[in-house]
Design goal:
Elements (H helix, E strand, L loop, with lengths): L2 E5 L3 H12 L3 H20 L2 H28 L7 E5 L3 E6 L2 E6 L5 E4 L3 E5 L5 E5 H4 L3 H11 L5 E2 L3
Helix pairs in contact: 1-3, 2-3
Length: 159
């Protein structure tokens, strides 16, 4: 069985990936907790500076990641045109402008989902992003293919 679809990396899809990536790591969790604790400090003391600082800390990561995603989409030549993905029994092939790269299923690090995308990590920080809007009605088949070819402990996908 093979599944093929095209993906256009947009600011929204890259931003979705970045948020998922940072808020599942200690840095994102600690930043949010710090902001919440400072806002609680405002509620206890009534000092407006605590409220302002807490909001800034909580909003900092999402805002900077949105700007970074926008800049990456604008400045990365590979994001100018759609990427063509083919999921096969052996792995994932991605092609663009006559060049093809292949990754075998065994080498995949993990697969996760967000409301917007299915994300297959090819390393600790690199991933293939499959926006649900680009996969359309292939989404369940893509999830099934990933779940079939990757070990259960590597797959954290909600339908």
């Amino acid at each position: 069985m093979e599944l093929e679809f095209d993906v256009k990396v947009t600011t929204a899809s890259l931003y979705d990936y970045m948020l998922r990536h940072i808020y599942t790591k200690l840095q994102g969790i600690l930043a949010t907790m710090t902001g919440v604790l400072i806002i609680i400090g405002f509620m206890i003391t009534g000092y407006p500076i605590y409220l302002i600082a807490g909001i800034i800390i909580i909003a900092y990561l999402p805002w900077t990641f949105y700007l970074k995603a926008k800049q990456q989409v604008l400045n990365t030549p590979a994001f100018k045109e759609p990427l063509h993905y083919k999921l096969t029994e052996e792995g994932i092939e991605v092609s663009q402008n006559g060049e093809t790269q292949k990754q075998v299923w065994e080498a995949m690090v993990k697969a996760v989902s967000t409301r917007e995308s299915i994300i297959v990590y090819t390393s600790a920080v690199n991933a293939s992003i499959f926006p649900r809007k680009d996969m359309k009605d292939l989404t369940p088949a893509v999830i099934q293919m990933i779940s079939t070819h990757m070990s259960r402990e590597k797959v954290k996908i909600r339908g």
